[in-house]
Amino acid sequence: MLAVLEIRRRMYWALTLFFGGEPPRELAEAFVSGRLAFPQVDPDHYPDLARGFLELRRFISGKADAAMLHKELIADYEKVLAPDTGCAPPRCESDWIADEMPDSELLKLESIYRVAGYEPRGEKVTMFRDDIAVELDFMHHLCMRSIEDRENLQKYVEEEILFLREHLLRWVPDFCDELIRRCSSRFYQAVARITKGFLLMDIEVAEKILSGEII
User: What is the model's pLDDT at position 100?
Assistant: First the structure.
């Protein structure tokens, strides 16, 4: 069980870094050192995730210099996700489901964060509360709490499932499909596939934890 919880935490940590601003040197070092390892997945059940992992491995393959890789990641970020590039699709939930997400829903989202003890930090402080990086970081927060406070594991997993259903899964898969369509970056195409595929897989994993299938 702990291994599964830790894999989920690490994945949300990585996804948050992918979208949370200019890629940090820490991410390049994790790739080069192999510290950020990706789980094996069944390509028949999770085609986007399996393809994304494969594309990312190919992108990283042969890159032994973290400093050079870091420069490459920054260059890709500036072409794809940096503000005003015109390449990336809108990155906030309300941009995708505006008719279903009035201001009251954004206030509700802030309340969800507050009740869970989550507060955006770093560059995420200046982001909208429904930005993809903030929502992914919130999932990382819940995963971290599920590891630190195992007595309340069920509560945290229930919150994770609810947040996936009511927020992330309602718009992030479409965001990822559009990002793949718009950008030519091998790195961010892989990131988009991994993000979409992982969210679709993770809700199944979370439900199995809750049902006792994963112990």
Answer: 66
